[in-house]
Amino acid sequence: MIDKQLTPPGYIVIEGPIGVGKTSLVNRLAESFGCGTLLEGAEENPFLERFYTDGRAAAFPTQLFFLFQRSQQLQDLRQADMFRSTLVADFMLEKDRLFAQANLDDAEMDLYEKVYGHLTMEAPIPDLVVYLQAPVETLMQRIQKRARLQEKQLDAGYLQKLSDAYTEFFYRYDQSPLLIVNATEINPVDRDEDYQLLLERICTVHSGKHYFNPAPVLV
């Protein structure tokens, strides 16, 4: 339950590598704030399963589908003027480029950059970005636990590459307030005490870069 004295940011983005718990946290925050969500919709990508089994062959159509999908979602929101109230998303458009750099060859990346440059100009700037971090071992455990069929081919090397890309990106990120959360030990989705700690911090960050490294609440 949210304290009535706490005011959430208007547009919150939860980011981080595969398996860190973005979407689950988004859904819980939306319930607390009584607001809408903006979700990736990875299950709608017809190339994704093929990518996880034959990444080199399916990388380019997979990335282009995600890029067009995310760009359209954000454009629809702008046209509907839904940013007047709180909204929580599990992706930011800029992260699409991180995946492209990890998966595309030079020629594909050159074409991708040209498309990306035309689609990202109208991307809204978040009022707060929450970056969830966790080591690859933890990510692999969480991915295995949720047992999504399309993710069963994911390996630790690929996750490490993505995690490194996220770390580099957010080291330089300064477009909006940023809260970097060590999500290794805490479980804000299933443990109310952990969630309340994170919820309070989300509602009190208004500028700059902040680090949140809480010890798990023992019950």
* Corresponding CATH superfamily: P-loop containing nucleotide triphosphate hydrolases
- Please count the helical segments: 8
Rg, Å, rounded: 17 Å
Distance between the termini: 18 Å
- Average residue-wise pLDDT: 87
What profile does the largest beta sheet have? 6 strands, parallel
Total number of β-strand segments?
A: 6
User: Assembly state here?
Assistant: single chain
Q: Strand portion, in percent?
A: 5-15%
Q: Remind me, CATH topology?
A: Rossmann fold
Low-confidence stretches: none
**Shape, principal axes of CA atoms:** globular
The CATH class designation is Alpha Beta
- Determine the structural class based on helices, strands and strand pairing: alpha/beta
Element pattern in H and E: EHEHHEHHEHHEHE
Tell me the CATH architecture: 3-Layer(aba) Sandwich
The strand line-up of the biggest sheet is: 2-3-1-4-5-6
Q: How much helicity do the residues have?
A: 40-55%
As for the number of domains, it is 1
